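Each lists sequence, tokenised fold; shown next:
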Amino acid sequence: MSNTSILIADDDQVVLTMISTVLQDAGYNVTEATNGPDAVELGFEVKPDLAVLDICMPGMDGIEVARELREQAGVYT
């Protein structure tokens, strides 16, 4: 099992579930968010090793989330 933590943020539940399932089956620890503000909050809380972000999400787009996570949590997106 991997200790690598991945944050996935997408407002499309089908896409979110598909990516999450594949990564969990590969042994990664996955945290899911369905909008930008939740992704930022979870990113600060979980401090994932990697974030996979949808560009167009409600509340805050993926680019803004990436900026926040890089500046505040040191996450590579």
Q: What stands out?
A: The chain has a mean pLDDT of 91. The first strand starts at residue 5 and ends at 9.
